[in-house]
């Protein structure tokens, strides 16, 4: 392992690499629900992730967005193999790691790291910052030239923290600083892929951009591939070269950033985008309609038949209930821009002249006021 922390991008600069680092095919996680008395048996399953396909290139940043409960964290934990998949396949650097044992995974573990949402609970309060960041090196028996402590100090500096704070405890830092500690820990083993699960959503809005910029710097300067998980499209906009939109355990649309933000074809992506103020203020989309998605995502225990978005979709027809729309490239779309919808939106986003309101209860409420 080289001792140089500011490595130039590995194998080509981000965005230009087409070399595949990670590939998931039909990835599935169903959490069993047990019930019955006196003998507990499986009575159902939470279909948290239900057959997703996704690739991440070397040094590429991919955003994954969707509402609460749609399976983003589960997908992230499957990819980092913190969870055992129910079905499908995960290939990392050409190696099938879907069901790899702890021992088989050991060399890969150091290359795939995770950054968690909550910078408060993800750091051990009884350990100093130095030992937190050092611990992945100890667990993996890595002894950098100059020693582990020197590496930790370099990492602290890299993430914008004072190396003199080596012996401080997590509670002495602010939320943003703690997330920087989480980033330093993730970088300790020079990963090739970082899964960042809502890394800024627990932070003050004023701090969010700083942490996103740090991650962007890390991604660009060190050539690390990222799967950046977020609730909405605003946060991943400046970070991701490609974006995957999830709904109820499925990827409903995926494509390069330009296509997803300017030529979205799935009604759900439209709805998510109409909630992003900075996108709605773009000149060309100034007149875009507002779509107010109300109500919750249906239960993943009994997802709707056919298209899972149909219970909230304003375009739903009979076919949508009987046939699941495959994730395909629609004619006129750029290569790699795939959409799962029987009646996709027009490629140009034109104003409808009025808002689309998806919940009659919301209309009634607004009319009352
Ligand atoms: N260990 C588990 N056992 C049973 N169900 C689970 C488990 N973990 C997650 N789920 C369920 O799987 C579904 C997907 O959860 P997940 O946490 O992946 O969603 P998410 O998109 O990350 O949501 P959020 O935006 O709230 O973080 C949810 O219905 C959740 O309740
Ligand atoms: S398939 Fe039908 S219900 Fe699903 S998003 Fe498309 S139009 Fe809506
Ligand atoms: Mg989550």
UniProtKB/TrEMBL annotation:
<keyword id="KW-0813">Transport</keyword>
<dbReference type="GO" id="GO:0055085">
    <property type="term" value="P:transmembrane transport"/>
</dbReference>
<dbReference type="InterPro" id="IPR013563">
    <property type="entry name" value="Oligopep_ABC_C"/>
</dbReference>
<dbReference type="GO" id="GO:0016887">
    <property type="term" value="F:ATP hydrolysis activity"/>
</dbReference>
<keyword id="KW-0067">ATP-binding</keyword>
<dbReference type="GO" id="GO:0005524">
    <property type="term" value="F:ATP binding"/>
</dbReference>
<comment type="similarity">
    <text>Belongs to the ABC transporter superfamily.</text>
</comment>
<dbReference type="Pfam" id="PF08352">
    <property type="entry name" value="oligo_HPY"/>
</dbReference>
<dbReference type="InterPro" id="IPR050319">
    <property type="entry name" value="ABC_transp_ATP-bind"/>
</dbReference>
<dbReference type="InterPro" id="IPR003593">
    <property type="entry name" value="AAA+_ATPase"/>
</dbReference>
<dbReference type="InterPro" id="IPR017871">
    <property type="entry name" value="ABC_transporter-like_CS"/>
</dbReference>
<dbReference type="InterPro" id="IPR003439">
    <property type="entry name" value="ABC_transporter-like_ATP-bd"/>
</dbReference>
<dbReference type="InterPro" id="IPR027417">
    <property type="entry name" value="P-loop_NTPase"/>
</dbReference>
<keyword id="KW-0547">Nucleotide-binding</keyword>
<feature type="domain" description="ABC transporter">
    <location>
        <begin position="22"/>
        <end position="273"/>
    </location>
</feature>
<dbReference type="GO" id="GO:0015833">
    <property type="term" value="P:peptide transport"/>
</dbReference>
<protein>
    <submittedName>
        <fullName>Dipeptide/oligopeptide/nickel ABC transporter ATP-binding protein</fullName>
    </submittedName>
</protein>
<dbReference type="Pfam" id="PF00005">
    <property type="entry name" value="ABC_tran"/>
</dbReference>
